[in-house]
């Protein structure tokens, strides 16, 4: 659909909303994949958000999750609206998948961030769904990759309950300011903790014996920052519940918490020209939002005089206690284009010229592979931990490439992300799958960028 056609569709939908439902907002003939049948207005998250007859015509969707607003007055998005989460009951109440949404961080548009510039970007975010819950749909469907409830799409987590945490604080759930800063609420930590407390009180979450924490990009970083904190919170809440039910001293119940971050292991790196840009942006965000105090407790103890190191998991990888499996590209596209700020690609990449042979940019691109492996080695080499890292260019993998046979490590091995994660969850053989080749030698996925 062209831009003009979409604009007309949006106008028509808005008029229909104002005057009552019209014939063309019916779901008749539109019960297939939302990705394929994106025919409603731009504000729709799924069919049932814009089609008045969705339930009657399509029979609803088992992939749909309900929005639950938090009643904790301290848990606020950047604009002050209430934090919230989506909950979808699974077939097995003892299993819960938690997914923390990504979406970057508050960035100063300039390469040399200032407090004023960072706050200005946070204010811009507060006027979008990444900084406010006001526009979040009452229901949302999750039917792709590891979040799907269909067994053929998601053979690993299809029967898990899903707790999806939308992202509206701009700090990877780490902001911790009791008041406001220039009218903005930095309450990411309060949203994080209130979400788990509320879910344990009002859903079947309290009955879970296994909780898998995942998230993509900034959400993956949140998993690495907070997994140990969440594990302690859930264990403490479970123990308190056992005491109330009189189970103390009789074994009680336990909860296994695991971490599965997707594309969250960002490295502390300057640009290819040696300029401190992305790490400086992260430090500015953390300073404005008082996020340092929310980072990994063991790291903060280790680097008491340098808490900024704890923004980057390479400095505390060996301190993460939660059993963890990393999913990451060895040539993460966010790091290539936004951390290293490369102006070229070592081979044919869409939109980028080819780097000069022997040039600094080319060598920096290829160095990223080993830098990742060296940085996360203390974490992935611990018993029970794992890694799936592919030598193809991508950022976040567990949605589009979850069961994709073109994305296997090594190539054509059968080791899709889903297959590797299933083996890791089963707790059998070690799962340490790092592509031994450089890009673009993993041919099936080498054309991606």
From TrEMBL:
Keywords: Disulfide bond, Signal
Record's keyword annotation contains Plastid: no
Signal sequence coordinates: 1-22
Domain of life: Eukaryota
Span of domain SMB: 23-63
Pfam families per UniProt: PAE (PF03283), Somatomedin_B (PF01033)
InterPro entries: PAE/NOTUM, Somatomedin_B-like_dom_sf, Somatomedin_B_dom
UniProt KW Signal keyword: yes
GO molecular function: hydrolase activity
Protein name: Protein notum-like protein
Annotated organism of origin: Chrysochromulina tobinii
Organism taxonomic ancestry: Eukaryota, Haptista, Haptophyta, Prymnesiophyceae, Prymnesiales
């Amino acid at each position: 659909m062209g831009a003009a056609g979409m604009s007309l569709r949006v106008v028509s939908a808005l008029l229909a909303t104002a005057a009552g439902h019209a014939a063309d907002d019916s779901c008749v003939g539109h019960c297939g994949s939302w990705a394929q049948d994106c025919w409603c207005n731009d504000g729709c998250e799924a069919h049932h958000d814009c089609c008045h007859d969705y339930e009657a015509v399509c029979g609803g969707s088992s992939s749909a999750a309900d929005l639950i607003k938090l009643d904790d007055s301290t848990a606020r998005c950047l604009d002050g609206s209430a934090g919230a989460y989506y909950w979808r009951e699974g077939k097995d109440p003892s299993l819960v998948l938690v997914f923390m949404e990504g979406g970057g961080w508050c960035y100063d548009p300039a390469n040399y961030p200032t407090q004023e510039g960072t706050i200005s970007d946070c204010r811009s975010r507060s006027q979008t769904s990444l900084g406010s819950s006001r526009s979040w749909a009452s229901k949302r469907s999750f039917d792709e990759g590891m979040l799907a409830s269909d067994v053929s799409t998601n053979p690993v987590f299809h029967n898990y309950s899903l707790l999806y945490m939308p992202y509206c604080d701009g700090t990877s759930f780490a902001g911790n300011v009791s008041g406001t800063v220039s009218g903005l609420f930095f309450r990411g930590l309060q949203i994080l903790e209130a979400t788990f407390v509320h879910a344990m009180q009002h859903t079947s979450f309290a009955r879970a014996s296994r909780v898998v924490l995942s998230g993509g990009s900034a959400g993956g970083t949140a998993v690495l920052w907070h997994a140990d904190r969440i594990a302690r919170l859930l264990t403490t809440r479970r123990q308190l519940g056992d005491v109330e039910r009189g189970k103390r001293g009789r074994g009680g119940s336990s909860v296994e918490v695991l971490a599965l971050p997707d594309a969250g292991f960002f490295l502390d790196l300057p640009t290819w020209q040696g300029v401190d840009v992305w790490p400086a942006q992260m430090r500015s965000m953390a300073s404005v939002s008082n996020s340092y105090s929310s980072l990994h407790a063991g790291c903060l103890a280790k680097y008491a005089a340098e808490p900024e190191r704890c923004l980057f998991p390479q400095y505390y990888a060996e301190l993460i206690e939660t059993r963890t499996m990393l999913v990451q590209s060895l040539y993460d596209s966010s790091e290539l284009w936004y951390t290293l700020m490369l102006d070229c690609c070592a081979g044919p990449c869409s939109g980028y010229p080819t780097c000069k042979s022997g040039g600094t940019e080319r060598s920096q691109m290829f160095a990223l592979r080993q830098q990742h492996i060296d940085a996360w080695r203390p974490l992935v080499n611990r018993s029970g931990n794992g890694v799936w890292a592919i030598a193809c260019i991508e950022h976040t993998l567990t949605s589009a490439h979850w069961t994709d046979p073109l994305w296997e490590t090594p190539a054509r091995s059968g080791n899709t992300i889903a297959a590797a994660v299933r083996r890791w969850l089963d707790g059998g053989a070690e799962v340490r799958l790092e592509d031994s080749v450089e890009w673009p030698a993993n041919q099936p996925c080498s054309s991606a960028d």
